[in-house]
Amino acid sequence: MKIEILKTKEEIGKRAAKEFIDVIQKNPEAILGLATGSSPIELYKNLVQAYSNEEISFKNVKTFNLDEYVNIDKNHPQSYFTFMNQNLFSEIDINMNNVNIPAGVGNLEEICKDYNKKLEENVRDIQILGIGTNGHIAFNEPGTKFTQITHITQLAEQTINDNTRFFDKKEDVPTQAISMGLSNIMDSKKIVLIATGKNKASAIKQMIEGKQTEELPASILQNHKDVLILIDEEAASKLKN
Ligand code: GLP
């Protein structure tokens, strides 16, 4: 794991974007693994900027998102599809046929199977990740097997509480999601993980310095050969070195 501690969210977003821009410039048909949440927002701003400056084009790029809430239609204001559209897709020249986000409504078993097949056929060149306060990545909650593929997952109580801020009330927060599995995430050639703020410090410490355990899903990344961790001082505050 390569770890960089940076001062601000803006610097982190810029640093992460550099990795993505390099990948797209080397291969205009790159396959990107994308994520939602507050952590990647600055990355997306920088990618939109790089597109506006004509440094990169997304015309032949393919994307695969990590997850989507179950029972939330893609047009719902809190769907991950809406999030991606607002923060990235509507601002760039991507072909929407090349955008892949699992649907949260329909025959969920079939959706998981199809998505997993597509992931196997489309190895990501680079994957962006955030991390949950309980150490989850995508929606792979503590206790998820390291061998897990795309699946329907029950959100942990802590995750539901963390996500309540996006909904009017706790009862509106979805309790299930469709998520890439840990095994799918590990298939990406390169991984960039972003975390900022004190509430991530404990998960970051366990991910980097803790023992590898399915109780802390992000600890699986200790096994990946090309991971870049971008954190601010608060998220790094519990690290020994
Ligand atoms: C959600 C997403 C994760 C994300 C996490 C952290 O649970 N499924 O992919 O990493 O939230 O979100 P944030 O970046 O807003 O802290």
Walk me through what this model shows.
The chain has 241 residues and is an alpha/beta fold. Helix content is 31%, strand content 16%. The strands form 2 sheets. It has a 7-stranded parallel beta sheet with strand order 1-10-9-6-2-3-5, with helices on one face. Strands 4-8-7 form a 3-stranded antiparallel beta sheet, covered by helices on one side. Helix 1 crosses helix 2. The two termini are 14 Å apart. The mean pLDDT is 97. It binds 2-amino-2-deoxy-6-O-phosphono-alpha-D-glucopyranose. 2-amino-2-deoxy-6-O-phosphono-alpha-D-glucopyranose binds next to loops.
Give the arrangement of secondary structure elements:
Layout: E1 2-5, H1 9-26, E2 31-34, H2 41-52, E3 62-65, E4 67-69, H3 80-87, E5 99-100, H4 108-121, E6 126-129, E7 151-154, H5 157-163, E8 176-179, H6 182-187, E9 191-195, H7 201-209, E10 227-231
Parallel strand pairs: 1-10, 2-3, 2-6, 3-5, 6-9, 9-10
Antiparallel strand pairs: 4-8, 7-8
Helix pairs in contact: 1-2
The structure holds 2-amino-2-deoxy-6-O-phosphono-alpha-D-glucopyranose.
2-amino-2-deoxy-6-O-phosphono-alpha-D-glucopyranose binds at residues 35-39, 66-67, 130-132, 138-139, 159.
Notable characteristics:
241 residues, alpha/beta, three-stranded antiparallel sheet, 31% helix, binds 2-amino-2-deoxy-6-O-phosphono-alpha-D-glucopyranose
Strand line-up in the sheet with most strands: 1-10-9-6-2-3-5
Largest sheet composition? 7 strands, parallel
Strand content: 15-25%
Q: Rg, please?
A: 17 Å
Give the % helix: 25-40%
Average pLDDT, rounded to a whole number, is 97
Bound molecules: 2-amino-2-deoxy-6-O-phosphono-alpha-D-glucopyranose
Structural class: alpha/beta
Overall 3D shape: globular
Order of helices and strands: EHEHEEHEHEEHEHEHE
DSSP helix count?
7
Count of β-strands: 10
